[in-house]
Amino acid sequence: MIIKRYKANNMNEAITRIRYELGNEAIIISQRKIRKSGVIGFFSKRILEVTAAVDNKKEEDKKRRHDNKDDMKQSVEAIKRIIDNKIKDTTLDDKAVPNNIIKSSNTPRGFYENSIVDKNNDAIIREVQQMKNMLNEVIQGSYGNIGRSKLQIRLENSDFSHSVVKKILNSINAMDDDREEEVKLKEVVKSMIKVDNKELEHVVVLVGPTGVGKTTTIAKLAGKLVLIEKKKVGLITIDTYRIGAVEQLRTYADIMNIPFQVIFSMKDMAKAIDNMKSCDIILIDTTGRSSKNEMQISELRAFIDKVQTSNVHLVISCTTKNKDIDVIVNGYKKLNYSDIIITKLDETSTYGSILNILQLAKKPISFVTTGQNVPEDIKIMEPEELAKLVLGEDIIC
Ligand SMILES: Nc1nc2c(ncn2[C@@H]2O[C@H](COP(=O)(O)OP(=O)(O)OP(=O)(O)O)[C@@H](O)[C@H]2O)c(=O)[nH]1
Ligand SMILES: [Mg+2]
Question: Which Gene Ontology cellular-component terms appear in the entry (predicted)?
Fold first, then answer.
């Protein structure tokens, strides 16, 4: 607060001086008539003494606010320009955002020249940082939907991979007729689903990652073939790696009263198959392997080569993440699988993964499994039924 006294001949003169020196915000605290000091003053004319005050903090704040406002305005302009560029790329990454604008004193003159370069004001840095976060959210949220049709958003929410979504949308766009979008969508999805309806024959090998349900599926298939189709079935396992794996399959073989053999080395394979030559179908269970482990996959390949069959089914769970589907489907391609068995349909409510698997594998689905019950939870599903699942019109409970 500044307090100042003015002596003037009249109030007009006092106010003019006060305004000039203290500004328009100044207020008059008091006024009184006085004589000049000293003896001469005693005989002189009375003059006016006016006391005025101004809140200098207010003035400083106002000035600071004004400066800050300017800075913020410039920050916003700078960010807006970044966003304008970035919206085209749909993301706003850290490299593009004002940390370097604010902190770097080496920023070349030019684009950010008049913005906030060289200002180390913590408050502004914080605010700009908050704005950056907010803008990122906005871009990834509502702005992320710009240019995306309802259909695209729906497909993405069904867990279809980007390439599958793109393929579906392109196919629909290429359809030059007046049918409803929903009808076209179903037709496109159905056309992307291939099912292998042919009967199982000779030697069938199941391969796939750990825990997807290979052994359980072998037991289900054996049950279906033996109990319903009255076929002669033999079971072989090469899974001596996991404790209990052999017993798991032996138990099913015992219950169904069918031949069962465990293979410990490659040279035993031909012999075991020969021993079961009276069987209509021989089902071979394998050890769950990571598709990333090339040595294990090569080992499996050597076993399969010994079997000399073209009936190799890749077993994969429909709960597998998109990125993992890619790795599994491609990693197992070395085994030249002929079909896909998709398991655990009962464990999810979005089935986009089915199309993702098929698009990458480019092989038909032989079976799907829908629960843990042996032998009933296995079936062949037609493209129509699978399309309904994939599009969310049906679910497996
Ligand atoms: N919910 C559900 N569970 C299943 C299905 N198929 C198998 N499972 C379960 O998945 C678990 C693993 O099944 P396994 O048959 O042992 O899997 P695997 O692929 O042989 O496993 P490894 O031999 O260890 O590689 C078991 O608890 C099964 O009951 C299915 O369709 N739905
Ligand atoms: Mg197993």
Answer: plasma membrane
For 252-288, how does the pLDDT look when each residue is reduced to its tens digit (9 = 90+)? Answer: 999 999 999 999 988 899 999 999 999 999 999 999 9
Residue 31 pairs in a beta bridge with 50
**CA pair distance 392, 269, nearest whole angstrom:** 44
- Whether residues 374 and 250 share a domain: the answer is yes
What is the distance between the alpha carbons of residues 136 and 224, in angstroms, rounded to a whole number? 54
HSE, CB side, 13 Å, CA atoms: give it for residue 373: 5
- Ligand 1 atom at shortest distance from the alpha carbon of 211: 21
Is the shortest distance between the CB of 289 and ligand 1 below 6 Å? no
Residue 396 inside a domain? The answer is no
Do 370 and 269 share a domain, yes or no? yes
Distance 263 CA to ligand 2 centre (A): 14
Answer whether residue 102 shows pLDDT above 60: no
Report the separation in Å between the CA atom of 337 and the middle of ligand 2, taken as the mean of its atom positions: 18
Instruction: Give the closest residue to 238 by CA, choosing from 268, 259, 275.
Output: 268
Please give the Cα distance from 358 to 319 (Å, whole number): 14
In the numeric block, which tokens belong to residue 73?
């305005």
